What does this fold into?
Amino acid sequence: MPALQNFINGLPKAELHLHLEGSLEPELMFEIAKRNGIKIPFNSPEEVRAAYKFNNLQEFLDIYYQGACVLIHEQDFYDLTFDYLKKMKADNCKHVEVFFDPQTHTDRGIAFETVLNGISRALDDGKKQFGISSFLIMCFLRHLSEEEAFKTLHMAIPYKSKIIGVGLDSSEVGHPPSKFKNVFKAAKELGLKVVAHAGEEGPPEYIYEALDLLEIDRIDHGNRCLEDTALVERIVNDGLTLTVCPLSNLSLCVVKDLKQHPLRTMLAKGLRATINSDDPAYFGGYLNKNYNETQKALNLTREEIITLAKNSFAGSFLSDAEKRKQISAIEVYARG
Ligand code: HPA
Ligand code: ZN
It folds into this structure.
């Protein structure tokens, strides 16, 4: 194994952009479908994987929502989450901040409590068994209305202690952040952190809206900020983190080739970029594969890799003391 790849694999790191439903591997999808008596329109996990060819975000989302329909019982949500944490243990990931999409499940008649309890129990076990700390972020589906987002926020109130913040995902173009201004304000008033997908396919104006109207604490993706110099300057000055997802960007044709990925440019401009996997079961790689493939494609240096790992903790919602501890551990590891 090349030395830099070895270095990446052992490097302590955090993941800040991961949709739990997007970590549903075809094998587990089949297993859960079978035990729940659900028919899926594929004959094998290989056939499922062969169907994962996307030209844009919407083509992916259509398949992703269909895959999530096998999840019914609390144990299904537990297994989904725990399998992801096993992968993160193998990648030497120390902390995760993961998304879930309650509306994908409550709209099918699954109780909010079922989803939340399954996920939370697995996150607790991940901490106990693997030492991986975690925060949970509840996303609103932006193709649905703000009124529906409010209903979801109200459902979450009894479980507020288990949720660190809210996010905004699903079909970006045509559903600008402004559509969710009031529900984000209400979430903030409840003391929740707020993040939003912005500038993945949507224009820089959507990033401005996420900053000005939603007052986000972190930008998910954010690639298209690079089209606007003043916006880049503002994000740098505000010290906001971008949760960049290279293999996702490649799969969804946000970039044509990983060699053209803007990650290195982002770092050079002083943006606090991080590497994340987004929906690894659909985009062909977990955290270390995202680091390794991007390193090879862009010829990232050891120093840039260290910066990315440090950014993943600096951009997290951990306490300042915990951030310092994790960043020191990276320094100790890098000294060898
Ligand atoms: N973008 C928007 N919505 C999503 C994504 C994404 O990359 N993954 C899961 N939901
Ligand atoms: Zn995402």
